[in-house]
Amino acid sequence: MRRRPATYSALGLVGRGLTHREWPPAWRSHDLDSAYDVVVIGAGVHGLAAAYYLAANHGVRNVAVLDKGYLGGGGSGRNTAIIRSNYLTPEGVRFYDRSVKLYERLASELNFNVMFSQRGHLTLAHNDGSLRTMRWRAEVNKLEGVQSEVIGPAEIARLVPFMDVSADTRYPILGALYHPPGGTVRHDAVNWGYARGADALGVQIHQNTEVVGIDVRDGRVHGVQTNRGYVSTPTVVSCTAGWSSLVSALAGVRLPISTHPLQAAVTEPVKMFLETVVVSGTLHVYVSQTDRGELVFGASTDPYPSYSTRGSLEFTEELAGHVLELMPAIAKLRLLRQWAGLCDMTPDFSPVMGVTPVKGFLVDAGWGTYGFKAGPVSGEAMAELVATGRTPDIIAAFGLDRFAEGRLVGEKGAAAVGH
Amino acid sequence: MFQIPCPYCGLRNVSEFRHAGERRARPDVRTATRAQWRAYLYEQDNVAGWSAESWYHAFGCRRFVGVERHTVTNEVRPATASDEPGAPDPETTS
């Protein structure tokens, strides 16, 4: 039943290019079986990575990944693809640094070019308060072995040619946290790479398969009801980001999460000029340039919870104003398109991962605006939890019980863009 | 942009308001257990559909307003009669 995936190579590329033979599909479609060892809900980066590492690291291969829509159609395909680990709490820094390490070798592990580009990441400080937080983050990062330093306006001007670092702007730039290992990745490629890798190891990926009920009896999971029939399973992992509250409610688990839309936009492509990723918390904006030359802009979440993914004119106006504060020279650039994704925000800006009061129902939620960068490490940790039954140290701080016990992991100083 | 019917000021743009949170029963502080209290503080219904909410009319009458909003379409209708617009505890609704 298992088959080797077609290995991608330079030679293969030349061969296919010359002969115009079709590439084989990267993953298969299946009929839904009646039972699986593990059912993962959500075929985004978190769900696919969890399934991949279950099969690759732990040999658990009778796994189904169910998604109500298409693969990578939620936050995994809507984020601005920024990877970094310069967080504020030691727990956060360790966690995201592991993710950066996994991203660094992901392309060779999956034999799939994920276009990870560690081009450097700058977080601007426009006032004394944020400069102080930058210093704090730099010190925490260094103690955890993560490369970060605070730099001044002259260095920023050297790194970002079109940045207005003059002192007479509305929000003068006082300094920045410079994080060289940060960068961008091609988010679709990460989703597809994990899907292909998981498929090759025997994991079944079911798109257009919506979970409409979770069968909980005597405090534990027995199966899930889908629009394609009932599946019995002892373990369900919910990796459903913005929809986490709704999926958890099917199992009777309440989460400290509210869903906010986050809008992003992209400009027409221009010649490469912006090498680093630039973030400004005060101005609620982050900018990077893709390999095609488009500028990708992200912002803070919309100021009220909603499941709407419609773009708004207020967002575009505010974004344009803020971007031009930073880079007045790009005023003539036109926006090509804007879109929105759903963010599952928690009160402390840290995720909710691990076991719940319902046995066999695990959550990987609360990913807010920082889910994509955590995809690999979350998948790895959730896979370990499912396979061994023990919560790995790296996610021990992020349990759902922390809210009842009052030990929140406050990441607002590093995760939020002025939320 | 959608609008919210303020019982004091009329129909106003949502940008004048601050979302103050879901409206839910507050446990009695004298009898609530710590778990009940923290559940009240942190847990959200977060429904995709009609939700009973409080909004604070920050750039208007500066009063709390009760409405029902459809969280997928952002349609808004006044709170039902039994659900009068009261002020939630500001400490819990940042």
SSE class of chain B:
mainly beta
Radius of gyration of chain A, Cα only, in angstroms?
21 Å
Give the rounded overall mean pLDDT of chain A.
Answer: 93
The count of strands of chain A amounts to: 19
Give the total of domains of chain A. Answer: 2
Biggest contact: A-B, 22 and 20 residues
Main sheet characteristics of chain B: 4 strands, antiparallel
Radius of gyration computed on alpha carbons of chain B? 14 Å
In the CATH scheme, the class of chain B would be Alpha Beta
Task: Give the overall silhouette of chain B.
Answer: globular
Key words describing this protein structure:
heterodimer; A: 419 residues; alpha/beta; FAD/NAD(P)-binding domain; D-Amino Acid Oxidase, Chain A, domain 2; eight-stranded mixed beta sheet; six-stranded mixed beta sheet; 12 helices; B: 94 residues; mainly beta; Folate-binding fold; four-stranded antiparallel beta sheet; two-stranded antiparallel sheet; 1 helix; 6 strands; 10% helix; globular
